[in-house]
Amino acid sequence: MRDDQLRDLIDARISGQRRITELAAARKRPATLLDENDRMMIIALDHPARGALRAGPRPLAMADRFDLLDRLCVALGRPRVTGVLGTADVLEDLLLLGALDDKVVFGSMNRGGLAGTVFEMDDRFTGYTAAGIERMGFEGGKMLLRIDPDDPATVNTLEACGRAVSDLAARGLIAMVEPFLSHRVEGRIRNELTAEAMMRVISVAAGLGDTSAYTWLKLPVVEDLERVMAASTLPALILGGEVSADPDAMRESWRRALALPTVKGLVVGRSLLYPPDDDVAGAVDAAVGLL
User: What angle do CA 72, 234, 183 make, to 5 degrees?
Assistant: First the structure.
């Protein structure tokens, strides 16, 4: 971003909510969710609101908001990038920068399960509400659903996600559900990335709410993915996960996933925004090429 863009962003922030509301109302919305090839390429950046700032070997990579916005604007400006996923602060910064026109926008809803805390599994909805997403004119909301069989706080998150799916559907908005089977190992939450675990949580996620008509899944690449994806008929997007030391192998796993009938695209954040060589445009273009 240019210095004048940063100054304008800060000045707009000072002017308050009115400017954000006006820009949201004037935003040019995409004609369809998918591109001309029935694919979706979403840049994800909702990690900071959960206190997760690491990207690869850099523990505080996402703590520099100006650098992060610069990377996001580069990514969103690449051809065939269809949208973005973020919390209100990030999306409003992008709105003020004029980066959301013609983009599919998903608001991140539950960020209360802060990384590394004892209450991490009680992932409360501290971000967007369905009403707030509708008010901003965005296309849908995303929620994280980690299921720990040994943690009773899981049921609070499960109930809240079910309610959010229903609230979004009542407004004709997409509910993007990201499910995992999780366990606490030496005090830290670890996701079980096996075919059996993913089939189990996909089955749970697909049944949330009073309709699944607007539900999409956000899923990792695991072994035996063809069998895993047969657990539901819901459309799915493949998530990027941690920054990989082997980007070629990571992209190959995405390519195999995209060959499956219910997989409609990618939702990737750190892997594209903080690639090992720091070439954001190159990383995004390589991922888009898989579509």
Answer: 70
Domain 3-137+217-289, what architecture?
Answer: Alpha-Beta Barrel (3.20)
Tens of pLDDT, residue by residue over 3-50, are: 888 888 988 888 777 889 999 999 999 999 999 999 999 999 999 999
CA angle 145, 181, 210 (to 5 degrees): 40
Q: What is the CA radius of gyration of the chain?
A: 18
pLDDT over 90 at 161, yes or no:
yes
Region class of 216: left (phi > 0), else alpha (psi between -120 and 50), else beta: beta
Query: What are the extents of the domains in the chain?
Result: 3-137+217-289
